[in-house]
Every structure is written in C-alpha cells, then in structure tokens.
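Why do we bother with holo predictions? Because pocket geometry can differ from the apo form. Keep that in mind while you read this record for 6-O-phosphono-beta-D-glucopyranose.
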Amino acid sequence: MVNPFDVVLFGGRGDLALRKLIPALYRANMEGSLAEGCRILPVCRRREDADLYLETAQTALQTHLRAGEYSDSVWREFSQLLHSVVLDIAVPDAHWDQLADILGAEGDRVRIFYLAVPPAVFGPCCENLSLKGLISEQSRVVVEKPLGYNAQTSDEINGKIASHFPEAHIFRIDHYLGKETVQNLLALRFSNVLFEHLWDAQTIDHIQISISETVGLEGRAGFYDATGALRDMVQNHLLQLLCLIAMESPNSMTAKNIRAEKIKVLEALRPLVGETVDNNTVRGQYVAGGVGEELVLGYLEELQAASSGTETFVAIRAHIDNWRWAGVPFYLRTGKRMEKRCAEIVIQYKKVSHRVYPQSAGEVIPNRLVIRLQPEESIKLVLMAKKMDSLSMELQPVELNLTLSDTYDSFRSDAYKRLMLDAAANNSALFIHREEVAAAWAWIDPIVEHWRETQNQPQLYRAGSWGPDSSDVLLEQDGRHWFNAK
Ligand code: BG6
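The structure, written out:
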C-alpha cells in the first residue's frame, strides 16, 4: 500500500471529478488501498458548493458506481477523507493560503494536484501553486487529454506545466492505459513465445483496432464539436493501443524503456499528407437511428445546430514503416453511436503457404487472433480443424476461446483508480511522456490540416450502424473487410 497522500482535485465539482475520480477514490478506499490519513481535497469555486460537497459527492457515487458498490457504511468512512476547499484557480488570493495551511500541516507527504479543469487554466493553476509555495519535492501534477488541439497548442500547454514541475513529476493520463485489459496486451505479447514469434509482416496479413461506442455527446457538445473523433480518440487511445501492439520488446518494463519503444512506433508511422489523406481516411457523422432498442437523435439535433463539419467517426489505413511491419496495414476505427460498444483488436494472419487438401475439403480460412478489451475481456483464436462428425476430410474453423471475465468473477477494473494510485506511488509506466504527445500530434496534424484545407465533409451514417459505407469501401479496396463485434 502507498503511504498516505493528499490529492487536490481542481475542478472538484466538474464532470470528470464526479463521474470518474470520486468513484475511483471511493473504490480505492473500499478495497483498502488508501492508507489511513489520506486526504481528498476537492476544489470548488463557490462557498455554497464547498458546503454542499458531501451531498454532491454522495449523489454522484449513487449515480455512477456500479450496481452493488455503493453502501451507506462505506460512504460514511469515505466521506471522512473529503475536505472541500474554496478557491478561484485564477486568483491567487487568501483562499490559496488556506489550502497551503491544510497541505503544510502534513509536512512532506506526497501531494497530487489533479487538474480536472480545461487546459486553458493549467497555466494559471500551476503558476499559483508555485507562487503560493505549494509545490514541494513530493508534489506531482496529473493532467488529462485534451492536451491542446494540435502540436503547437499542446507544446504550449506542456511548456507552461514544465515551467513549474519537472517532467518526472508530471503524470499525463490516457485512461486506456489504466485498463487492466490494455496492460494485459503487453503481458500477452511479452510472456508468450507463441505470439511473439508470429508477430510480424512474415505471418500477419493486417491488424484492425476498433473502439466503437454507443453513446452520443453525453452533454459535452461544445467540447466535442470543437474536437471531433480524430483528436478525441485516435490521437491518444487508438495510437496508444497501436503502440502496444506494434512496439518492440522493451529490455524491461520500466517507464523509460516502454516509452522509448512507443515513440519509435509513432515516429515510424507513415505520414498521411495531402492526397494520401483522402485515400486513407474516412470521416463520418451520425444521423438519427436506433441504437439497440433506443431511437436516438442525429448529431446535429443533439448539438442543436444547423450544420457542423465535425466527425463523430473516423477510419484510417495506417502503415508502420519499419522492418517488422513493412507492408502490413493497420486499420484504425472509432465512432460514436455505433451498433455495439466494443474495443477490439483483430490480428489477421496470412494464408497457409501451400494448400495440401483438395478443394472438396472446403476453404482454408486464415487464423485470426481477436483480443477484446471491453465490455468484457476475451481472447479468441480462430483455427482450422477437421470436421469431426464427417468421415470425409472436411475442414472447418474452430475457436479457442478464453473469456477472462469468467476467470475473474469479481473482476472490477477501474482505470482511474489504478492511475491515481500509480501517481501516488510515483510509478509513471502507464503515463504519457511529453515526447509521446508530440509524436502523436505530429502524425495527426497533417490529417486535420488536409481535411480543413479541402473542406472535407463527413459522410453520414445511421446511428446504430457500423459507420459510413465508405469505411467498408476503405477495406474492400484492399480485398478485406471489418470484423464487426458480435
Ligand atoms: C474519452 C473520450 O477519452 O474516452 C470520450 O473523450 C469517450 O469521448 C471515452 O467516450 C471512452 O472511454 P471508455 O473507457 O468508455 O472506452
């Protein structure tokens, strides 16, 4: 267990804090991962909000925890850790001194400043922390995407933080890395000779990485319309998954080694510029339709706008120009209001080099490894085998199925809990380094730039579908198709 620490939640009443961070800390406390004496200091701008914070947090927990997780007795214990603070992030007045008094009283213990606020106030917040002498040797700052809208703005934001905190004390979150299932990708790759020896252009035909969501704007219309799926999901979550799938084995699992390998992948991504953007990307925007049993509005109605050129779906054909992956396409896809919520990676192997069975034995379907990260975790290997109930030689695909959620009955992963505890323990392996952010933007920027220059309009797709037709065409051009989650 980590030593007692203080976590100051700037933006304590915001969506991120109430939906994710407070529930994550509640869970951490419930399972005994918070040492006695830990304090959670949610920052509110107004006194009334601070006074009512316990009620607000309790309602948030009742709303956002999973069924069965909330109980009055656990809440009573957890509520003892919450000490709301009133201050205006941008105004270094006497309220900050009160925060200093609270923190100072505990001497040199770990302080986590979690900036759950828009990036525009990261700078003033860090300046005031500095001005008020709150940044101790044991202080860490946690920030989250979106870190800017392009390489330049992201660099400016990172620069502001870096003038007050050394890189080693800056923890940039990509919550996908905190998912146990995502970490399992590395375990799968680097602890099984079976996969690692069949993990390159010699044997793999192509790779698909898909994150499909059924939700729409979730009350974040302003943010989302200015951002779009490419910046919201591909720049971070999808590229991180791509790195974990494509990177070379690090010498050991230290933050430094993992980062170095991930950066090599990002730097080897073949740039998509000018016309190559048109040939290798698809943008989509949903119109009204049915997701499951529910009829949902289209993007524009949800946004309450007459028009918008923002994409809620994106599909990309990417290539990694290095020895291991030469010629292997990586198809990336993500979208809102799609048919099913699922994050899945499909490794499609090549055909066998020579067919030994006659045509009458049936088709020899190439092997496929399907790693599902959510909603449930499973690993499936599609193999060819003999049809057992037939005397003649007939082949059929069979599945080797490993459903990890069945193995871990009470498995309740929470990425934010994991990452918060890692930041407290000073373990930065699952966080993003400034250079990684820069390398990811360097690949994304020309795509956005080309879309903007050519006034590329998103293709419409029906909510509850798998995206626009042109996304299917992107793979059909290569004689392939998407493996849509069942
Ligand atoms: C966030 C995006 O980073 O990830 C959201 O901003 C998206 O738009 C979310 O819905 C998806 O996360 P998860 O963990 O639900 O797959």
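Residues 213, 215, 232 surround 6-O-phosphono-beta-D-glucopyranose (CB under 6 Å).
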